[in-house]
Amino acid sequence: MSLFKKIADSYEKNKPFVAYNKPNETLLSGFFLSNDTLQKNTDFNASGFVFAPFNEDEDAIIFPLEQSECINEDLYFMDTFLESKSVLDNLDVTLKEKHIEIVAKAIAKIKEQNCKKIVISRFEEIQLTSFDLLAVFKSLLHYYRNAFVYVWFHPKVGLWLGATPETLLHVSENSFQTMSLAGTQLFNENKNPIWKSKELEEQILVTNFIKKQLQPISSYLKINNTETVRAGTLLHLRTRVEGQLKKNISLENLIRAIHPTPAVCGLPREESKKFILKNESYNRDFYTGFLGELNLSNGKNDKQRSILFVNLRCMSIASNVAKIYAGGGITKDSDPEKEWLETVAKSNTMKQVL
Could you give the CA distance from residue 18 to residue 333 in angstroms, rounded to a whole number? Predict the structure, then answer.
């Protein structure tokens, strides 16, 4: 059975699975479980595929390697691309005023209490008159070749799809790579991007936080030059970070040090998180959490590796309703109207495949 047929079969039979394609690769991978037991992971020592929420106080979900049927398949389907058959209906036009209000509240808090940044997000519910899972997943794979593209399903949790441009961690033994990603503008092939002080400041804040968090647990740390990267129709600022962990530092220590990053939460982290949980008026669940391969190896002598991505540009789907998530970093210089437009641009990533 091909991997795509396995996805359709598992979804129809209500069995948990995940299928994904790493950035700029041509291999599609999947974990397929035969039972619907919900298995949680707290210490990140297990091997398998992990799906973790934004709120680190909540448990991550693991699809254990030893209980999964793992399938890898080349993406030959690209030559016979199938357009999505889903249809959008009943767009909610009342979201703008609410989002601008919360952004203004965040700006006031930043100015009054010396916060540096708070990430404010929202969701948009869209009624689908029809939904074809394989067509939507193939659309994501087709349009977002340089992103981590996935479909994840558990009958006790729900269905999620996404195409995220941001790596949280790439770990092999005690070596790691991560990145800070901030700033957003629309891609225009006819002109070079110009980044304003607000976006540049936001990027520096994220990079400095990661540096501060990683220095105490690293024996070596390198911060690379900031660059502009493209993710679909959007451009972002990215700074790559790499290093070596000190002895006796675990993967859990590393994850807890940087998740959630200021790119999805804010600075100071705990103060920003409290504001988010109190004022966003919805539960982010797995949006701005992370997901990916956990403690896998290619063979007996191969080093264990973990490749984790921040869950951005994503949506959850239930009963033909797509819930699309988007957000942006708020600083003292933010303009609420422009912040709204940024979330519109980001949510269009998912709308384009629906």
Answer: 40
What is the Cα–Cα distance from 354 to 126, expressed in whole angstroms?
10
Residue 79 binned pLDDT confidence (cut-offs 50, 70, 90): very low
**Contact assessment for residue 19 and residue 2, using Cβ atoms and an 8 Å cutoff:** no
Q: Is the pLDDT of residue 120 over 90?
A: yes
**Domain spans, the chain:** 3-351
The 10 Å Cβ neighbour count of residue 228 is: 14
Report the topology of domain 3-351: Anthranilate synthase (3.60.120)
Host H or E run for residue 9 = helix 3-12
Q: CA-to-CA distance for 310 and 288, rounded, in angstroms?
A: 6
Residue 66 has pLDDT above 80, yes or no: yes
Quick check: bond before 165 cis, omega within 30?
no
* 141-179 residue pLDDT tens: 988 888 999 999 999 999 999 999 889 999 998 999 998
Residue 298: count of CB within 10 angstroms of its CB: 9
- Residues 344, 319, 278, CA angle at the centre, nearest 5°? 50
Helices (H), 77-229: 95-113, 133-143, 197-214
Q: Is 271 helix (H, G, I), strand (E, B) or coil?
A: helix
CA dihedral 347, 135, 29, 59 (to 10 degrees): 50
pLDDT surpassing 50 at residue 240? yes
pTM of the model: 0.90
